Amino acid sequence: MSSFEGYHPLMTPTFRFDWLTQFRLKHVATLTHQGLAETADWLNTVMRQTMSRQALTWGIERRATRKLVGWGGFQAIDLPGHRGDVYLTAPQLPSSEQQEILTRLVKFAQSELEFTTLTLLDDHDLDTTVLTTLGFTPRQNHQWRLKL
């Protein structure tokens, strides 16, 4: 795909992934612990990176409640090198929901982006058992790697 524009929304049984611009600014600001102006600037940067194919970031909404619970996606996208960094920022999600989201991201990376390697740079909000179950191997400084 020449543009990332068509890559939204994505669905799982529990969650809808959509551009952060599809959510109320005030809800995104609350989740990011920033003011409205800072959040608006951050959203502009995120969407500019998405449209220039440098990153893919989705807001993650619980479908049943329509509540924004976090955001995640890919950064440092290297399409010719078939690799990128995956991340999930969703504090306080149970392990089963982390697994559902990360499974969707891994499948997307493999089938749509044709990645052969994924790196997770920060596991602070994540259950490391989920990462191991998905096939990630630990590296140093809270980083993990997955060969697809």
Automatic annotation (TrEMBL):
Entry keywords, A to Z: Transferase
Example GO molecular function: transferase activity
Gene3D superfamilies tied to this protein: 3.40.630.30
Highest taxon listed in the record's lineage: Bacteria
InterPro entries hit by this protein: Acyl_CoA_acyltransferase
Protein name: N-acetyltransferase
Record-linked SUPFAM superfamilies: Acyl-CoA N-acyltransferases (Nat)
